[in-house]
Design goal:
The chain is mainly beta and about 350 residues long. Helix content is about 10%, strand content about 45%. It is elongated.
């Protein structure tokens, strides 16, 4: 007569809110000798009344081949080609037992390994609690997901999934004094987003909307800005710089189809047509926005149809475009064209 002496251990890993495969290990022997080789197993999860809530296949007669080494085997219930575990299985049935049948392919057919093993491990209890909390979160999904009332373990699991993630970006702005300017936070994924704007590292009072609006830009608004996008699961931030071009300090020149000016700091800005490189942007593409092309100490500026000239405080003359000077020719970036002192 042959006897089976089953020894079982069950552990679950809570890796998600849907029912992930459950790692199950056991040991079998025949007449006290550990079995080795392939065997056919059937697995079921039953409640205390014996009702089957899951089996390894839709057809109760279907088994799965499992290798056994020195009496030991490991399977993933709900994995390895088995029928998946229902997503709410451990929520609706917190107490379940594993029933195992095995055929050693010796002509004796299936043996029932007894007793059924209860699913009561600590990780499983955690998984059930997480799933219950998730159901509570689902019930208020229409109002957005909040972490304030969630179990800390669930919150830690959900954070990588529900924290804000930027899907857009912000860009530096250069605008004239007195302009109406709106700084907009980048688009982002996530629910229940909140915003906090900062200027030069300090919280900007009252700036908690997605947009930060300046109806009339002032020199005091110049600086480095940061917007922090948050919800209960995490946050991210992005930075941009705002440059205010002060009208009272601007010196401007108009060419044939382009403009150029010097701001209050001595930087040169251009916009318009650029067929000869007269904007100094490094190419010959038309610009419809102002572009800073020289950062420094410019003090005077003039523009022709295809050329822009400016003078620095060091009395150095720079040109962009078609200079029409022998040996210099067309310049696509600001280029010093005279080394001797230029007065005007």
């Amino acid at each position: 007569m042959r006897y089976l002496f089953p020894i079982f251990s069950l552990f679950l890993i809570a890796v998600g809110l849907s029912a992930s495969p459950v790692s199950y290990s056991g040991k079998v022997s025949i007449d006290g000798v550990n079995f080795s080789g392939p065997a056919d197993f059937r697995f079921e999860l039953r409640d205390e009344n014996g009702t089957v809530h899951w089996r390894n296949a839709q057809n109760p007669a279907t088994s799965i081949s499992v290798p056994v080494q020195n009496g030991r085997y490991v399977v993933l219930l709900g994995g390895q080609g088995m029928l998946g575990l229902p997503s709410q299985l451990f929520v609706q049935h917190p107490k379940l037992w594993v029933r195992v049948q095995v055929d050693f392919r010796d002509g004796q057919g299936l043996r029932l390994l007894q007793p059924d093993q209860p699913v009561r491990s600590v990780p499983h209890a955690l998984s059930a609690n997480l799933a219950k909390s998730a159901l509570s979160a689902d019930s208020v999904a229409d109002q957005g997901v909040s972490a304030r009332s969630l179990d800390p373990a669930l919150k830690a699991y959900l954070a990588p999934l529900l924290k804000p993630v930027a899907t857009g970006s912000v860009a530096n702005l250069d605008r004239l004094e007195g302009s109406a300017v709106t700084l907009s936070a980048p688009s982002a994924t996530g629910e229940n987003l909140t915003y906090q704007w900062k200027k030069d590292g300090n919280i900007f009072p009252g700036a908690t909307a997605q947009d930060l609006v300046f109806s009339q830009l002032q020199p005091s608004h110049r600086g480095s800005y940061e917007v922090v996008v948050s919800n209960d699961f995490g946050s991210f931030s992005q930075q941009l710089a705002v440059e205010v071009l002060e009208l009272g300090k601007i010196k401007i020149a108009g060419g044939g189809d382009h403009i150029a000016f010097i701001d209050g700091k001595g930087s040169v800005w251009t916009s318009g047509k650029n067929g000869n490189g007269q904007l100094g942007t490094g190419d010959q593409n038309t610009r419809t926005q102002l572009t800073e092309v020289f950062t420094g100490n410019a003090v005077k500026i003039k523009a022709g149809s295809n050329t822009t000239l400016f003078l620095t405080s060091d009395n150095e003359l720079y040109a962009m475009g078609e200079t029409r000077l022998s040996g210099i020719g067309r310049k696509l970036v600001p280029t010093k064209i005279l080394s001797e002192e230029v007065l005007d």
